[in-house]
């Protein structure tokens, strides 16, 4: 008879702990937001089930819906991460598909730059004229 060492997929406390870790939140911070002690959060994360009202509060602090905690599957998250990482170069690929033409944006910047330069040049010309007038008035 073979026993499975794999933990239950319905262990809400473990799901809360993993989501909290993924979000980079410490037990102390979660406890503070919930108005409980760090030990209480630790006990919650060891509990297989949690009252819906408490789960709603935890979900709000973690920034996820309560249903996301209930349906959280770490294996699925690992599979998603594994399928998006290119192991050949040890980095993830990022694809950027702009909804605009980048060359058009560059040309807009060039035109804006020209206008600013022309305004600066006009300002300098006006300063020179004022200086010339000031010198000639003496």
UniProtKB/TrEMBL annotation:
Domain HTH cro/C1-type: 16-69
Keywords: Coiled coil, DNA-binding
PANTHER family for this protein: DNA-BIDING PHAGE PROTEIN (PTHR46558:SF4), TRACRIPTIONAL REGULATORY PROTEIN-RELATED-RELATED (PTHR46558)
Protein name: Helix-turn-helix transcriptional regulator
One GO MF term attached to the UniProt entry: DNA binding
Superkingdom in the source lineage: Bacteria
Matching SUPFAM superfamilies: lambda repressor-like DNA-binding domains
Coiled coil: 106-134
Keyword match Transcription regulation: no
Statement: the UniProt record of this protein carries the keyword Membrane: no
């Amino acid at each position: 008879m073979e026993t499975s060492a794999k933990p239950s997929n319905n262990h809400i406390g473990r799901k809360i702990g993993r989501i909290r870790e993924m979000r980079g939140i410490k037990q102390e911070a979660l406890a503070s937001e919930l108005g409980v002690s760090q030990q209480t959060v630790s006990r919650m994360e060891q509990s297989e089930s949690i009252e819906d009202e408490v789960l709603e509060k935890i979900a709000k602090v973690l920034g996820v819906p309560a249903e996301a905690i209930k349906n959280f599957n770490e294996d699925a998250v690992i599979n998603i991460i594994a399928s998006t990482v290119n192991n050949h170069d040890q980095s993830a690929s990022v694809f950027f598909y702009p909804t605009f033409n980048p060359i058009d944006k560059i040309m807009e910047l060039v035109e804006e730059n020209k206008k600013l330069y022309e305004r600066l040049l006009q300002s300098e010309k006006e300063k020179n004229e004022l200086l010339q007038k000031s010198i000639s008035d003496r």
